[in-house]
Structure formats: structure tokens, C-alpha cells
Sequence to fold (322 residues):
Amino acid sequence: MQLRTLGNSGLEVSALGLGCMRMSFGDTPTDKQEMIDFLHAAVDRGITFFDTAEVYGPFTNEELVGEALEPFRGKVVIATKFGFKHDPDKGPHPTVGLDSRPEQIKRVAEASLKRLRVEAIDLFYQHRPDPNVPMEDVAGAVQDLICAGKVKHFGLSEASAEQIRRAHAVQQVAALQSEYSIWWRNIEENGILSTCEELGIGLVPYSPLGRGYLTGKVDETTTYASTDIRSRNPRFTQDAIKANRVVVDLLERIGKEKGATPAQIALAWLLAQKPWIVPIPGTRKLERLDENIGAVEVALTPDDLVAIDDAMAEIKVVGDRY
Fold:
């Protein structure tokens, strides 16, 4: 497995990370021991970067990741997130809104440390900007945790260019997590990607495979359970699935030339954009993990990248991302 460093932070991770959310949160119940074994298999294959969050469950995903990766403490990097509040009286859906007040951030950190079974959180992201809390206060709270030895690196997720700058002025931002893929490239246009490059901030794209669409395994007959976010996603209506097939056709065409799958081309495209980009595709299947890891060995030339960009410029993707 190749390694990459997230910006100027010095935080070195595997070139591909692993999104862990759906291992214990979302559409289909999973067997805990099966997921622990799967996470061990990921480590065996060279994955060192694992992504979770307090809100996934809530809490259960951090517990799973913490238990599974405890034997590898010091050898892997675990990223988790703060920024939501929960009401235990709300039953199975206790997440009730945003909360990035400094006192809340510190409470979440203490709880996450216990669930993850670590002495310090490797990368602590603000999950979403909180309009009621200045970014400077958020960064200051994480800075206090870093000074206390409870957090190693500060991250943001889905923040604007201005918010990134304001936070970074107080405490170095190691990484920005943001949706980014061959069919969702807004961060190239709104100043976010260029701000990361200017400030030396790593980029961690989530949904790099378009929530599974870019694998080529989805068609108009595909259905999703009501608990699956894709059942309500504008890009997963029958009409959108059919219209956007041209994107998969492009990936398949390039893939045939490279001896690669559409998913591998989509990930290789991201890896080719910048050396400080580390995608975190999520999966629960070993064959998909192995397929994704194969993307690291797919070499796209400058001519390939130009051809892909030219082709995508002629394609109008149907449906918003949420």
C-alpha cells in the first residue's frame, strides 16, 4: 500500500482510507464479529486510515471501530467527528441538531476517547459547520484538546473556503473532508480545493464512488430500503440512474484500456488530482475492498486526465447530491 501525507500536517496514512459508517449504521444490520474481522482484514491489506463519527449510530460505530482496531493502536489512524447533539428521549433517532459549542466539543472528545479505546484522537473533525458558533471558537476548543494531549490533529468537514481560513488562522487544519468525485466537483469551482492547496491542508473525499453508483453496479431496477439514504437521493431515482449511465460508460471505456473496473478508474482519477488527496470509500465486502485497493496501482496519464475532463464537460449529471 502506498502512503500519503495529508497536507503540511505530517499525518501519514494509506493512500486509500476506509469509511466505516455503514458497518453499524444505515440500511442493513451487520454482524459485529464479521465487521471486526473485516476491519482486521483491511489492516492486513495495508489500510491505516479509518473514518468514523460520534453520530454514526449514534455511538455504535465508534465502539465497533475502537474494539476492532484496539490491537493495532499506534499503527493505524482513526478519524472521528463532533458537531451534533443528541436527545436520548428521541428513541431510535436521537440526533436533534448541530452543536459545536466548545464545552460540547470537549464532552464529545472525552466520550469518543473511551469508545475508540485510545489515549488521543488522531484526527478530530467538525462534522458540519455550526452557524451559531464562530469557527474561531471551534478551532480554539480543539486547540485546547491538542494542548492537553487528547487530540493530535484538527479537521473540518463540508466547510466553506472562508470557514477553513478562519479556523486555520487559530489552529492548523490538517484535513478537510468533503464530497468530491468525478461527478461531483464543486470544490474545484468554489475556492475550497485551491484554499486547501494554498494552506497545506489535506483533502479526504467521502462518497468518492458516488454512493456506489460509479461502480457500475446500479441500474434502473436497483431498489433501496427506506433506511438507506439513496432511497431519498435525487441521483438515485430511476430517471437519474438511467440518464447518468453515460458517466459509468466513460469509466468503463477508460477501464478497458487500463485493465481496470469503473470503480478503480473513479478512485484513480481522484488520486491523480493531488498527492495530498486520500479518498475514503466505504464498504463492508472484502471483494469490494480489494477492488478499491487495486485503484492505487492504476496509472492515469496526463492525456487520460484531459480526455476524462473533456468527456465530463460534455455530460450533464442529473440530480443533486442530497
